Amino acid sequence: MHNDHVGTFFDFPNATFHLQDEEMQFVTGRHMRDAVFSRPYEVDHVVGLVRLVFGDRVDFHRGDAEIAPGVSVHHIGGHTMGLQAVRVQTRRGWVVLASDASHYYEHMESGRCFPLVFDVGELLEGYATLQRLAASPGHIIPGHDPLVLKRYPPPSPALAGIAVRLDVDPVE
Ligand SMILES: [Zn+2]
To answer: How far, in Å, is the centroid of ligand 1 from the Cα of 114?
Structure first.
């Protein structure tokens, strides 16, 4: 629920949101009193998601869950208490959208840790979980690495620099 991941949730009025129990616990609990943990959240986003809970628009998960055929969510933790990765079956096999389980390729490849972290041990174990879920290390997509736009082709020329296809092999 960090602001850079959930900030446009209100643009999807018909969506059901999939959330780990531990993320909602984190953003409404004691740790939000500490600025180091609360800064990446917007209180209006958190309250907005709570309102959606009351409207039955949030599906909660505790760990792994298949949310559609070939699409599953997996609790990783580490970066935040309830961080989850998403795994998708594609024509080249299981692709894992790591989100902030690995900000850059280099974090998981060198076993390093992005400094904004709730539980370092859980974050480091998350790298092994990503590997276990993906068809190969090349099937793991970090959440914030500009190299993703370089390694994968856009679905159309108009979307160059904006979106990429992850169901095809990387170019490098
Ligand atoms: Zn984040």
So the answer is: 10
- CATH code at 63-172: 3.60.15.10
pLDDT digits (tens, 9 = 90+) for 13-70: 999 999 999 999 999 999 999 999 999 999 999 999 999 999 999 999 999 999 999 9
Which ranges constitute the DSSP H helices of 29-119? 35-38, 43-54, 105-110
Strands of the sheet containing 84-90, edge to edge, are 65-68, 71-75, 84-90, 93-99, 140-142
Phi, then psi, of 145 in degrees rounded to 5:
-90, 120
Q: For the range 153-159, what are the long-range contacts, defined as Cβ-Cβ under 8 Å and sequence gap of 24 or more?
A: none
What are 64-93's pLDDT values in tens digits?
Answer: 999 999 999 999 999 999 999 999 999 999
For ligand 1, the distance from its centroid to the CA atom of residue 149, given in whole angstroms, is: 19
Distance 3 CA to ligand 1 centre (A): 8
What's the 104 CA to ligand 1 centre distance in angstroms?
12
